[in-house]
Amino acid sequence: MPINIPEDLPAAKILESENVFVMTNKRAMSQDIRPLEIIILNLMPTKIVTETQLLRLLGNSPLQVNIEFLQMASHVSKNTPQDHLTSFYKIFSEIKDNFYDGMIITGAPVELLNFNEVDYWEELCSIMEWSKRNVYSTLHICWGAQAGLYYHYKIPKYSFDEKLSGIFSHKVLNSKHPLMRGIDDVFYIPHSRNTGVKTPDVQKHSELEILSLSDEAGVSIIGEKSGRQFFILGHPEYDRDTLAKEFFRDLEKGIDPKIPSNYFPENNTDKKPIMQWKSYANLLFMNWLNYYVYQNTPYNLSEIPKISFNLEIPNIPDCYEYHI
Q1: Residue 108 shares a structural domain with residue 127
Q2: Which one of 93, 97, 128, 256 is most buried, counting C-beta atoms within 10 A?
């Protein structure tokens, strides 16, 4: 939340130069406040688990947030009870005329498929195009980030020789960027993926800024300079035991997975994993909610198209895939 201080206080300029949000008395007196409207497109198979993980982070804020859940109409979920989906989820046709402060697009276990081989890819393209006019800021996670980077910027994904799984250290490249505010120079995020993007491909786009890199996991957090799109290649929302459950699941399937890096103490799978990313996950989500949703979205959500990427609705481009 911003701090409200006199406009001529000497500390004001120093704090503003550090991207600490300060609000003058004059602005505070005229500010209207309402609940934030956030929609979550949940592409994960274990939807209830993912709901809990994301809501835990979104709820760790003094801001009031109204949440809606969205599912794909073109895909049948096999791991979530139908009555849960019927009770708590909407489909795109039900919300396409609405406006939202923010949107989260989750990961999905489809990364080894080409984008156009995913059964709901065409529908997802429509939703991502819609988000440019109807959502102020969208946060993409893991495969959702790869899909968003490909759809909006045609940045391809590349397959790894082996799955990237574990807790990896990341370096902050711009400590004054509002999304990175309060985060240590080195911080940690879980990763669990078979594909990723390459730094040179991102650097070709002047609209994008790489906010963090990992020696092991590569480029990991990317922000659009407008603040309208963010792409997190890892899973900051993961619980302590999420990677363990994935590891033991794959082990039971006979896949012979590698032990997640930097996760089990002494690489002993009988020991309780060390939680070392919770504070960073909370900061990332709070910074996004505060600086790029609460502070920037117009009070009247219907004004979002006036400040959108394109003032005229473009034709939805063909959704095709680079073959790497």
Answers
A1: yes
A2: 128
Task: Write out pLDDT tens, residues 126-175.
Answer: 999 999 999 999 999 999 999 999 999 999 999 999 999 999 999 999 99
Residue 77 CB coordination number (10 Å) = 18
Q: Residue 282 is encoded by which pair of tokens?
A: 């909370």
Contact indicator for 230, 138 with CB cutoff of 8 Å? yes
Rounded to whole angstroms, the Cα distance separating 318 from 324 reads 18
Matching residue, tokens 């409207």: 37
Look up the domain containing 291 and give its range. 32-239+280-307
C-alpha atoms less than 13 angstroms from C-alpha of 185 in its C-beta half-sphere: 0
User: Is residue 23 domain-shared with residue 161, that is, in the same domain?
Assistant: no
Q: pTM to 2 decimals?
A: 0.86
Catalytic residues: 142, 235, 237
What whole-number distance in Å separates Cα of residue 205 and Cα of residue 215?
Answer: 22
What's the number of domains the chain is made of?
2
Q: Are 69 and 40 in contact (CB under 8 A)?
A: yes
CATH of the domain at 172: 3.40.50.880
| Within-domain flag for 259 | no
DSSP element (H, E) containing 58: helix 47-58
Contact status, residue 217 vs residue 168, Cβ threshold 8 Å: yes
Specify whether 162 is located in the same domain as 21: no
Contact call for residues 237 and 57 (beta carbons, < 8 A) = yes
If asked whether residues 125 and 19 sit together in one domain, one would say no
Residue with tokens 């481009």: 317
Q: Per this entry, what is the length of the chain?
A: 324
